[in-house]
Amino acid sequence: MKAHFILYVGDQPKSSAFYRNALDQEPTLDADGMTEFTLNDGAVLGLMPEAGITRLLGELIKDPNAGHDIPRAELYLLVDEPQSYYERALANGARALSPLQKRGWGDWVAYCEDLDGHILAFAKREVESST
After folding, report:
1. What is the pLDDT of residue 129?
2. Cα-based distances in Å from 110 to 72, 89, 115, 121
3. How far apart are CA 124 and CA 82, in angstroms?
4. Contact 99, 87 (CB under 8 A)
5. Across the chain, which distance is largest between two alpha carbons, in Å?
6. Alpha-carbon gap, residue 23 to 88, rounded angstroms
7. Are 22 and 47 in contact, with CB atoms under 8 Å apart?
């Protein structure tokens, strides 16, 4: 099964540029109405304009723009160099929330907020010794 995680964004080109720089990769799809980044063989991050999902589902859902700048999702990414990702995100407009530090569950994690208020976490698992 391949999972597509779609974040609703206020400005698709601006958010696409942010994630292109923060993730240090090019999108695998960049069309009017959807930008996608392949995170690994089983996961894709999609960016859809808030107006797009409203056009698609109309009155069946609440207007996602009403929740703009309110955390609606967390994207927790396990990466080799979380500090580098965190710094790139901040350099491209993310708001710093918490610097890289070891968390109670054992991961090293840095938290920031993307351009639309979604929480973005860059994490690395603590490698346990086999001794």
Report:
1. 43
2. 18, 11, 16, 6
3. 6
4. no
5. 58
6. 8
7. no
* Residue 111, φ and ψ in degrees, nearest 5: -115, 140
The amino acid at 93: G
Average pLDDT over residues 84-96: 98
β-strand pairing of 108-113 with 119-124: antiparallel
Class of domain 3-124: alpha beta
DSSP 98-110: EEEEE-TTS-EEE
Strand order through the sheet with 43-49 = 3-9, 43-49, 34-40, 29-31
CA-closest candidate to residue 121, choices 31, 103, 130, 50: 103
Helices 12-23 and 82-91 meet at what angle, rounded to 10?
150
Is the entire prediction scored with pTM above 0.85?
Answer: yes
What residue type is 124 in one-letter code?
K
